[in-house]
TrEMBL record:
Keywords: Transferase. GO terms for molecular function: CoA-transferase activity. PANTHER family: BLL6097 PROTEIN (PTHR48207:SF4), SUCCINATE--HYDROXYMETHYLGLUTARATE COA-TRANSFERASE (PTHR48207). The keyword Transferase applies. This is CoA transferase. The lineage of its organism: Bacteria, Pseudomonadati, Pseudomonadota, Alphaproteobacteria, Rhodobacterales.
Length: 397
């Protein structure tokens, strides 16, 4: 039995953060009903990397497994009636509309909690539901920039660098997932539902717990180096270095061991404070020149012999083929009825008694509309009426 077997989640979210959070609840056994427009959720039509798939693009496929699709027009009276009936028996409701939209659609917390006081209502936003930035677009790159994190990457005098993944979206998804689970635990103890507010700005800010505390408590500013040092608050050498045939990552070695490993005696006498902090650029450059004389394999062997923390710089192809990834079962594979064989990252937490489970791949738009409505008590005549009025979609691509 999955941890969340018997729980129903109404996922009214779009794009990445909300659907990712809802997918995690589905991975733990919840019945996640993806409530999307009759034409399909926006992410169905915005494929990452231009990979459109057969009927479902990879972006949507990756964020919507273990869900059933209910295609409904929330702007129509019929669509709003359907949601009210579903909310009465739901456990979790997730939305990430812009401020004010949930109210206009009649799916705000006050309205839905009046129908079901035990409802855990997860509201996700870019900057918060109110305040001076509430109406700004909550997009990953914009939040990375605003969070201060980008000013810690890249070279001094060059444009700050963004992360190589949708970092803010992913962190916000996990924050919402954590918040939903905590609110469900509270409900099990008290019987009370509640509203859970998560915003992208707070999620990415609090992720930088250590770095921001160095600034707010230690009052040390961000000072980027001319060399591509990997972190403004870690001593040199720390970062990525080119070998004769590739790259390695090097993390905070002691200078005597580094000197022996790289046959660079000049490194042995460096002072950790002076060279590591005050002369970071010169130290980085010296190590870079020493490492460039060796192949990746030789360099890693030498560094490992000295107990120095170093590792290869992988491509995605390298990562997917890594034996530890295979041992961990990090990826899951399944056959999808329209997309064929799918290989995608799975659920990263292992439970000894209640493991996560893949029950279904990403659905077609409205694939489960009829089943969901029948289970909610709607008659065949009512379903046909909703269909005729354009309030629902039924199994389109």
């Amino acid at each position: 039995m999955g941890i969340l077997d018997g729980y129903t989640v109404l996922d009214c979210s779009i794009a990445m953060a909300g659907p990712f959070a809802a997918q995690r609840l589905g991975d733990l056994g919840a019945d996640v009903i993806k409530v999307e427009p009759v034409a399909g959720e926006w992410q169905r039509h915005a494929p990452a990397g231009g990979i459109t798939g057969n009927k479902i693009n990879v972006s949507f496929l990756s964020l919507n497994r273990n869900k059933r699709s209910l295609a409904v027009d929330l702007k129509s009276p019929g669509g709003q009636e359907i949601i009210r009936r579903l909310v009465a028996k739901a456990d979790v409701f997730i939305q990430n509309y812009r401020a004010g939209v949930a109210g206009r659609l009649g799916v705000d917390y006050d309205t839905l909690s009046a129908i079901n006081p035990r409802l855990v209502y997860v509201s996700m936003s870019g900057y918060g539901e109110d305040g001076p930035h509430a109406q700004r677009p909550g997009q990953d790159l914009l939040l990375q920039a605003m969070s201060g994190a980008m000013m810690s990457t890249g070279r001094k005098g060059e444009p700050p660098q963004a992360a190589g993944q949708y970092l803010v979206d992913a962190v916000t998804a996990y924050t919402a997932f954590e918040g939903a689970l905590a609110a469900l635990l509270h409900r099990e103890r008290s019987g009370e539902g509640q509203k859970v507010e998560v915003n992208m700005l707070d999620a990415i800010t609090t992720l930088q717990m250590q770095e921001l505390s160095v600034f707010t408590v230690g009052h040390k500013p961000q000072e980027r180096s001319a060399e591509p040092h990997a972190h403004v608050y870690i001593r040199a050498p720390y970062g990525t270095f080119a070998t004769r045939d590739g790259y390695i990552a090097l993390a905070m070695p002691q200078f005597p061991g580094l000197a022996r490993a790289l046959e660079a005696p000049a490194l042995a006498g460096l002072d950790e404070t002076t060279a590591g902090w005050d002369d970071r650029d010169a130290t980085f450059a010296a190590v870079r020149e020493a490492i460039a004389r060796f192949s990746t394999a030789e360099c890693l062997t030498r560094l490992e012999a000295e107990g120095i923390w170093a590792g290869p710089v992988y491509t995605y192809a390298d990562l997917v083929a890594d034996p530890q990834i295979a041992h961990n079962g990090t990826f899951l594979e399944y056959d999808h009825p329209t997309e064929g064989r799918v290989k995608t990252p799975g659920f990263p937490i292992r439970f000894s008694r209640s493991p996560s489970e893949l029950r279904r791949g990403a659905p077609l738009t409205g694939e489960h509309t009829d089943d969901i409505l029948r289970a909610a008590g709607f008659s065949e005549d009512e379903i046909a009426g909703f269909d005729g009025a354009g309030a629902i979609g039924r199994g389109a691509a």
